[in-house]
Amino acid sequence: MCCCEHKISGSREKLWMPYCFEGRERGLKPHPYCTECGLIKSLSSEKPRSLGYFMNLIAALGRRYKIAKVQVRLIALEMERMQMDDKFGMDRKQQEDLFVEITTRILNVPRRAVFELLA
Questions:
Q1: CB count, 10 Å around CB of 48?
Q2: Which stretches does DSSP call E strand in the chain?
Q3: Mind listing the pLDDT tens digit for each residue in 83-112?
C-alpha cells in the first residue's frame, strides 16, 4: 500500500472495474483513483472500520484468552504497517481478512475465535 494523501482523479478520468454490492458482483462501474499513487478507490457497500473497532475486538478477545500488552502493541503496529485504516483503497472484507491473519499469527488463537467476534 502507499502513504499519500490520495488526490482523487477528475470526474472524467475513471477506470471501469467490477464492483460488489452486498457481497455479489454487480457489473462494471467507474472507479476514481489517486493521481499520486495510482490506488483505485473502493466503492464497496461495506464501509471500512476504524482501527479502534479492531482494538476493541482485541480487548474482547483478551477476556477469553491471556493476551500480553506486548502482543496488543505488536498487533497495533502490524495493522498500522498494513494501513488498515486507509479507507480509500480497502473495504471491510479486506480489513477483516487482514485482522484475522494478523491476530491468529501473533496471538496463536484459533481462527474460529476471531471470526466469532467479527460476526
A1: 20
A2: 15-21, 24-31
A3: 888 777 788 888 999 999 999 999 989 999
* Grid cell locating 51: 482501527
- Please tell me the distance from the alpha carbon of residue 66 to that of residue 77, in angstroms, as a whole number: 19
Q: 24 in the Ramachandran plot: left (φ > 0), alpha (ψ -120 to 50) or beta?
A: beta
Residue identified by cell 481462527 is 111
Neighbours of 105 (CB within 10 A): 12
Q: Quote the strand ranges of 12-90, DSSP E.
A: 15-21, 24-31
Pairing mode of beta strands 15-21, 24-31: antiparallel
Please state the φ and ψ torsions of residue 109, each to the nearest 5 degrees: -110, 160
